């Protein structure tokens, strides 16, 4: 476990220090999801989340801009997935959402996605999972395609398994790839997302997660970056 988190920390430092950053933002995320088991190993998941960021670069904005949310993200998604085995699943889904940009403009989005997820036990205690998701994103200004990776490491903090009333630690890293032609995108690998969460099963079919996240995004062809720091709360029901 220590080696895994050390590797994540080293990658974070390399990515964070390897680029010149532009604006820095602070914000929060609220996420809730419900999963319903269906027949023959299929399941339906509904998820709703809201992100809000405030601009904090004192050299570029006025004091008034710190008092209102400069970037709002609202997403509602539905995923149908099949658990082929305890260590492999596949699925597809639909997402609708919108973003209120820093300029105040609202950008709606429709999204289709397909995903496969692999997982394995590490030393019979922790769980390492890898997910590959292909996303087709539809905007009024044009369509985009994105590839999203997700690496998650979940470890019980009390005993060998995560039981009712016990805590666990969850680390997540997501690299995002823009699959549009080179002349249309800022970079192929244009965003890195890190999360560290502390979670607890409060009921048999309910868990709560508290965490912090960090995003580093490429916002121009010149390689300009923006940093996003957030605190998050997640509530999940099965």
TrEMBL record:
This is DUF2490 domain-containing protein. It comes from the Bacteria. The lineage of its organism: Bacteria, Pseudomonadati, Bacteroidota, Cytophagia, Cytophagales. It holds the Pfam family DUF2490.
């Amino acid at each position: 476990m220590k080696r895994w988190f050390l590797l994540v920390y080293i990658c974070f430092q390399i990515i964070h220090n390897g680029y010149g950053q532009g604006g820095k933002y602070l914000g929060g995320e609220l996420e809730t999801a419900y999963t319903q088991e269906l027949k023959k190993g299929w399941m339906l998941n509904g998820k709703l989340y809201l992100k809000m960021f405030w601009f904090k670069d004192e050299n570029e904005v006025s004091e008034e801009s710190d008092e209102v949310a400069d970037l709002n993200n609202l997403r509602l998604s539905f995923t149908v997935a099949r658990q082929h085995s305890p260590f492999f699943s596949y699925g597809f889904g639909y997402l609708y959402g919108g973003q209120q940009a820093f300029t105040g403009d609202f950008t709606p989005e429709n999204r289709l996605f397909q995903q496969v997820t692999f997982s394995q036990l590490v030393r019979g205690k922790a769980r390492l999972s890898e997910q590959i998701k292909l996303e087709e994103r539809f905007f009024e200004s044009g369509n985009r395609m994105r590839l999203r990776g997700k690496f998650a490491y979940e470890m019980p903090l009390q005993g060998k398994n995560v039981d009712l009333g016990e805590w666990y630690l969850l680390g997540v890293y997501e690299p995002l790839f823009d699959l549009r032609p080179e002349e249309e995108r800022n970079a192929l690998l244009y965003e890195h997302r890190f999360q560290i969460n502390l979670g607890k099963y409060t009921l048999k079919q309910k868990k709560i997660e508290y965490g912090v996240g960090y995003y580093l995004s490429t916002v121009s062809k010149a390689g300009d970056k923006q940093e996003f720091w957030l605190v998050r709360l997640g509530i999940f029901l099965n």
